[in-house]
Design goal:
Layout (H helix, E strand, L loop, with lengths): L2 H6 L6 H11 L4 H8 L3 H7 L8 H10 L17 H8 L3 H25 L5
Helix pairs in contact: 3-4
């Protein structure tokens, strides 16, 4: 596997780092990359800043000048919550959800009381 590709894989959300890694992997200085792109070294430095947000076409052109290729892909999002549970709760009326919350709160109080009793915290 190409070390430039391996180094770049985790940096897709930071284009400045992606470009700097590709440039270094190609053995180029900022001035050398600037000459290839027909821009100033300062412009390359700005592109490599952590907060840089270049257009995709700009990043692609700069990466190609290093011998790298910009590949953008999308994948299905993994939900961070149980969407089925959310749908189930939204199917309830507001009054039903409130009653369920009251039951859960009472159960939590009973559990806390049982824990305190078992630890001998209540006289």
């Amino acid at each position: 596997m190409d070390s430039r590709a391996a180094g770049a894989r985790g940096e897709t959300s930071r284009p400045g780092r992606l470009l700097a890694d590709a440039r270094r992997g190609a053995g180029l200085t900022q001035a050398g990359l600037a000459r290839r792109l027909g821009i100033s070294q300062a412009a390359v430095a700005r592109l490599e800043q952590p907060e840089s947000n270049p257009r995709i076409a700009t990043l692609d052109r700069a990466l190609r000048a290093t011998g790298a290729e910009l590949i953008i892909s999308a994948r299905p999002r993994e939900p961070s919550i149980d969407e089925g549970l959310v749908r189930q709760q939204l199917a309830l009326t507001a009054a039903q959800r409130l009653r369920n919350l009251e039951v859960i709160y009472e159960q939590a109080r009973e559990l806390a009381l049982a824990g305190a009793t078992s630890r001998g915290e209540l006289a």
